[in-house]
Amino acid sequence: MEYIKAFVIGGIICAIGQIFIDKTKLTPARILVGFVVSGVILSALGLYEPLVEFAGAGATVPLSGFGHTLAKGVRSAVADKGLLGAFTGGLSAAAGGITAAIVFGFLIAVFFKPKDK
User: Fold this and answer.
1) The model's pTM
2) Exposure of 46 by Cβ count < 10 A (0-12 exposed, 13-18 middle, 19+ buried)?
3) pLDDT on residue 88
4) Angle 97-72-21 (CA atoms, 0-180°, nearest 5)?
């Protein structure tokens, strides 16, 4: 049942992004930034954590989940380090995902030799 919940919630989040792409004149980059910011705002309001508990990876894998991770990291770092935590907490919390993206992107580039269009 966990897989179904993750699939449905993740699919709804992706469908919202597709609707924005199809029905608005927003660029994909602005939509992606909007998802990250919405994750931060929903996390600050306490609305995203129940969604994460319900859907698991269906809510944490999309970009709104990245915003939630940043907000959660900032919140805990501010509690531990004070104001300095506002600058360091988000990247500390998301460091594993950012590092994985860089390493796997590099490995794909090495093995598949990307070319300019």
Assistant:
1) 0.79
2) exposed
3) 87
4) 65
d(Cα 108, Cα 117) in Å, to the nearest integer? 17
Contact present, 58 and 8 (Cβ < 8 Å)? yes
- Measure the CA–CA gap between 54 and 60, rounded to whole angstroms: 11
Alpha carbon separation from 1 to 5, 7, 21, 54, 56 (Å, rounded): 6, 10, 30, 11, 11
- Token couple for 42: 């929903």
CA distances from 26 to 10, 34, 62, 112 (A): 21, 10, 19, 32
pLDDT in tens, 65-107: 899 999 999 989 998 888 888 888 888 888 988 899 999 999 9
Write out pLDDT tens, residues 14-48.
999 999 999 999 999 999 999 999 999 999 999 99
CA atoms within 13 A on the CB side of 106: 6
Place of tokens 């602005």: 30
